[in-house]
Amino acid sequence: MNNVITIKQLRTHLEPLVPFGELLLEVQEGTDGYKIVVIEHEKGQLVNLQNEVVDENYSSKATVTTLHTDQNGTIKFIEHPFGAFTKANKNLVPILVNLIGHAIDTNELRSELAC
Questions:
Q1: What share of the chain is helix, strand, coil (3-state, %, to 5)?
Q2: pTM
Q3: Partner of 81 at 20 to 30 A CA spacing, among 2, 16, 20, 61?
Q4: Rounded distance, CA 97 to CA 78, Å?
């Protein structure tokens, strides 16, 4: 990964964090830089243990992680969901850690701003 990455490269890099649903990015601009909220969006049928459809149009969104950048788009710190590191999530940690210090193209960040 180069020091400056595109939104498309960022999405590709973060895909392992979202194993079931669709990866969404919510970009917000602040006084100190950008906040990029990574969200897992799942939709479809919801069934119970008896395999009965409970909801035809189930939709769920969960924040996976949040990246914080400076004004130049350089990732300075990351909020993560890992309360503890375990065998189950140990491979996901380097995915996040390796992003620190990389910059995201600010023109692309501005085009992704949440309304």
A1: 20, 45, 35
A2: 0.83
A3: 2
A4: 8
